[in-house]
Specification:
Number of helices: 4
Order of helices and strands: EEHHHH
Strand order of the largest sheet: 1-2
Structural class: mainly alpha
Radius of gyration: 20 Å
């Protein structure tokens, strides 16, 4: 939010930047229309519009990966390049060490043992191919 010069002054204008992350059941066109409908009273500029990653865990390659590495797949709260692969029909997953909710934070880190766990999981999957 960018508005005014002080907290106790009504600004003549205000600008707000909204990061609308939408679920894979919506297209980019539906997401844009939703935002336009929601903010129809105000001028709106779309700065970036990226398709969400469609879950591909039903695809054989992704299924074999999940089976080999173990664990329970969960949602990814944020955009990654997996969405680009999904648009091309290529199954893809986000996988790596650390807590995804801490990604890009000042204190982002992972245990060294997590790197070894990821290596073993990837090796198991690749060796089974």
């Amino acid at each position: 939010l960018d508005a005014g010069v002080a907290g106790n002054v009504i600004p003549p204008t205000a600008t707000i930047q909204i990061n609308y992350r939408f679920a894979p059941d919506k297209t980019t066109e539906q997401a844009r229309q939703y935002m336009e409908d929601l903010f129809h009273e105000w001028p709106m500029n779309v700065l970036d519009l990226s398709a969400p990653a469609r879950p591909g865990l039903d695809r054989p390659l992704a299924k074999s990966f999940v089976a080999a590495v173990g664990g329970e797949p969960g949602p990814k709260y944020g955009w990654t390049d997996v969405a680009r692969f999904g648009q091309l029909g290529i199954p893809a997953v986000n996988f790596g060490p650390g807590n995804a909710l801490c990604a890009h934070q000042v204190d982002e880190c992972c245990r060294l043992g997590s790197l070894d766990e990821c290596y073993r999981a990837l090796h198991t999957w690749l060796a089974s191919r």
